[in-house]
Write a structure and sequence with these properties.
D-Maltodextrin-Binding Protein, domain 2, single chain, alpha/beta, 6 strands, 6 helices, about 40% helix, six-stranded mixed β-sheet, about 210 residues
């Protein structure tokens, strides 16, 4: 049947004619439309994480299904799946292969520039974070708050200016540390890439709440 004869056909035969000659084009167009609509919906509805967390040498896999949910609820945030981007699979101890892989993963996390908070085991600064990775806490916490926690502060040195500044806090004895299974003892510091300083200030205060 020629295309120009379609003009005089009844509707049902027109539909059959279109299907006979253009069904693959129609199918491809429908598939492409579905892909476009699906992608657009995902982009429009996808929420950015509220917090991006990297944990170095976490002693065991965390048991929490929704990490830090109580903090965000108390702060008035809507907690959702993916609200916290948590990477607690960076281990820099054990055999050489594991340590090397952990160091590479940490370097990638630092280079990506998405992290808000770093945790590390022990009470001393993790060497990998000493090179201008962590923010000066005096830019986040007011002087009176720093004074109250001065015995918990961890320090590093700015490689350009030589200035010594507080870059982390020791979480020994805090409610958060005692109620979770991330670490037996650890410190936390705000990443230089963190943008919401008010949120970081409140989060540090949350981490430092005593457990007694």
């Amino acid at each position: 049947m020629k295309k120009h004869t379609m003009r005089g056909l009844p509707p049902r035969q027109k539909a059959q004619f279109i299907w006979d000659y253009y069904r693959w084009q129609i199918f491809i167009a429908i598939v492409l439309m579905c892909v476009v609509v699906s992608t657009a919906c995902r982009i429009l509805t996808e929420k950015e994480p509220l917090l991006d967390v990297v944990m170095i040498n976490s002693s065991r896999m965390a048991s929490e299904e929704k990490p830090f949910e109580d903090f965000f609820r108390d702060q008035g945030y809507e907690y959702f799946d993916g609200a916290v981007e948590l990477n607690n699979r960076i281990w820099m101890y054990g055999d050489q292969e594991i340590a090397l892989a952990g160091a590479q993963m940490l370097m990638c996390a630092v280079a990506a520039g998405n992290t808000d908070i770093f945790f590390w085991d022990g009470t001393e600064l993790c060497p990998t974070l000493a090179d201008d990775v962590l923010m000066d806490l005096s830019k986040i916490l007011p002087p009176e708050s720093l004074e109250k926690i001065q015995n918990r502060l961890v320090y590093t040195t700015n490689t350009e200016t030589g200035k010594i500044f507080p870059c982390g806090v020791n979480l020994s004895g805090t409610a958060w540390l005692e109620s979770t299974d991330y670490y037996e003892d650890c410190c936390a510091g705000v990443a230089y890439s963190a943008e919401n300083r008010n949120l970081m200030r409140d989060f540090i205060a949350y981490l430092l709440k005593r457990g007694d």
